[in-house]
Input
Amino acid sequence: MSKTELVAFMAEETGLTKADAARAYDAMVEGVTKGLKDEGKVTLTGFATFNAKHKEAKMGRNPKTGEPVKIAARTAVTIKPGSKLKEALN
Output
């Protein structure tokens, strides 16, 4: 499902206009991003928990040439599905 399809679904389900649903979607994405930056964790009870996890710099290998490559430190996001999401998919 793309952002456009999700915004259309949100508008249909809530009775909002597509423009209002798009603003709500953008606000939610911004809120999750801000929560991860500021606190490192965002929990949407029943849906999912997002965690920001720091990964140290390390050495890897270029799979094509086999040469060593330095992989920079970064912050990755992990997502753990909530109980309602797991239940809906199984």
